[in-house]
């Protein structure tokens, strides 16, 4: 009797084994939204970068991911996963931890980095949203105190393995340095969102008003294509903005235009690129959207200080990141039959490839 009962239990266990394996099949994620920080809670209070996505999509399910300080948020209905990576160097670790979590299948996932940034007033205004064609890393760098640089140098920042500014060096073993995103996908995202209304207000107008003679800085918020420079340090000023413009031109061989400065894109893109080469993600499905919370320098001729960062600009940038980025997220997740096996592209201005 005991032997017969043992055999029954073993047979039952063997029969359930395929079902258990089926239940642990990785979740196929359609879209990952990567925000970097939140002011307070992720729901119910003053919004930062992440809260508009959690409440707006919405992302109701909480998932603890080892290696992430903050729980991920997920919508089983739409297949959208939202992640708060934390800022600066920690974003790199968070994205790697997410990719390595075997509960998720990222093989066909679209990745959207959506966060605030400083804008070059030559190119964009407060609250504006820029889709990047290029992300450039400015962390692997030589730095000389500006008070001690040679008199014929414009600034004391220059590439590794060079001996002066504006020579392209190498950062082998440190970084990929520059990442070109899928231009067809970027064009598609821009075309889909170019006419997205972004609210303006009197506070933003006051912050813009000093940039006389710089038409893009004076515009109400708008959507554009413009490239991102990543540094883990927060910088500000006219000389540093000139360096950023030069650095992006240098590393993109003249193709890129410095538009937004942030602290995370270089780490996130480096990790996504490395795991794409390992077959874990599709780098051709990566988008970077940065929105302007402040300018990277004061008006021409004005002192670098007072403060570079303004709460009014930050709130506008939080809002525009969601307003613009969510259009793309909803389109991708809502028409998965169209985009699962083929990334979208723009065939002409205002026309999406079906």
From TrEMBL:
Give the coiled coil ranges: none
Q: Name the InterPro entries for this protein.
A: Pur_nuclsid_perm
**Per the record, a Pfam family?**
NUP
**Any idea which UniProt keywords this protein has?**
Signal
Check the UniProt entry and state the signal peptide residues, or none.
Answer: 1-22
Q: Which domain of life is it from?
A: Bacteria
Protein name stated in the entry = Purine nucleoside permease
Which species is this UniProt entry from?
Answer: Caulobacter segnis
């Amino acid at each position: 009797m005991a032997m017969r009962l043992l055999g029954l239990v073993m047979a039952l266990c063997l029969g359930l084994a395929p079902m258990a394996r089926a239940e642990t099949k990785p979740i196929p994620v359609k879209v990952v939204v990567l925000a970097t920080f939140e002011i307070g809670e992720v729901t119910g209070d003053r919004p930062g970068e992440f809260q508009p996505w959690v409440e707006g999509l919405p992302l109701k399910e909480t998932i603890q991911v080892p290696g992430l300080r903050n729980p991920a948020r997920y919508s089983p209905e739409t297949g959208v996963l939202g992640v708060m990576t934390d800022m600066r160097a920690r974003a790199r670790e968070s994205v790697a931890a997410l990719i390595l979590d075997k509960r998720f299948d990222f093989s066909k996932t679209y990745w959207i980095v959506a966060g605030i940034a400083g804008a070059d007033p030559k190119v964009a205004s407060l609250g504006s949203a820029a889709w990047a064609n290029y992300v450039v890393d400015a962390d692997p760098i030589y730095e000389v105190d500006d008070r001690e640089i040679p008199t014929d140098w414009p600034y004391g920042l220059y590439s590794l393995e060079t001996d002066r500014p504006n020579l392209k060096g190498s950062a082998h073993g440190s970084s990929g340095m520059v990442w070109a995103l899928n231009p067809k996908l970027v064009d598609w995202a821009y075309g889909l969102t170019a006419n997205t209304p972004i609210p303006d207000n009197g506070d933003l107008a006051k912050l813009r008003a000093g940039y006389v003679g710089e038409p893009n800085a004076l515009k109400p918020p708008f959507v554009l294509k413009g490239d991102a420079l990543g540094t883990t340090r927060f910088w500000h000023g006219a000389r540093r903005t000139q360096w950023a413009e030069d650095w992006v031109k240098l590393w993109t061989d003249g193709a890129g235009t410095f538009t937004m400065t942030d602290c995370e894109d270089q780490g996130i893109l480096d990790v996504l690129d490395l795991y794409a080469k390992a077959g874990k993600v599709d780098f051709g499905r990566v988008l970077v959207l940065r929105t302007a919370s402040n300018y990277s320098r004061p008006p021409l001729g004005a002192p670098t200080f007072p403060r570079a960062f303004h709460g009014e600009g930050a709130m506008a940038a939080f809002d525009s990141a969601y307003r613009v980025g969510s259009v793309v997220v909803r389109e991708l997740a809502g028409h998965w039959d169209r985009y699962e096996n083929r990334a979208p592209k723009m065939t002409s201005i205002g026309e999406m490839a079906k």
